[in-house]
Automatic annotation (TrEMBL):
Name listed for the protein in its UniProt record: MmcQ/YjbR family DNA-binding protein
Database matches in InterPro entries: YjbR/MT2646/Rv2570-like
Organism: Actinomadura nitritigenes
Single Gene Ontology MF annotation: DNA binding
UniProt KW keywords: DNA-binding
Keyword DNA-binding tagged: yes
Amino acid sequence: MADAEDVRRLALALPHVVEIDSDGFDFRVGGKGFVWSYPERRPGKPRVIRTDIAVLYVGDEAEKQALLLGEPERFFTTPAYDGMPLVMLRLDKVDPDRLEELITDAWHMRAPDTLADDLDTPADQTSTNPR
């Protein structure tokens, strides 16, 4: 079972990651988001930042559908995310090893080509996060 602190630890271990100030977690590479807290919206109610659910960039619709259909206990989507290569992940349904794989894959898909080679460099040599 993973949680928001696992997301933070894993995301910040990747090179060139910046954490954006938010009520939950929000990580970017090259100015592009790759994992963040789910901003749940319910009609007539204020938005709630859910740190128990991560929004992950997945690359394309085929991968999104494969995750949604293959692991519905872990992944879901909402109409607000239709047409976007994003899935929501229930953190309490994933172990830290799988979470690391998912976050690293999202990083790879969002990192500019000029930064992608830095993944093999230790994070403390490449991180731009001030935390």
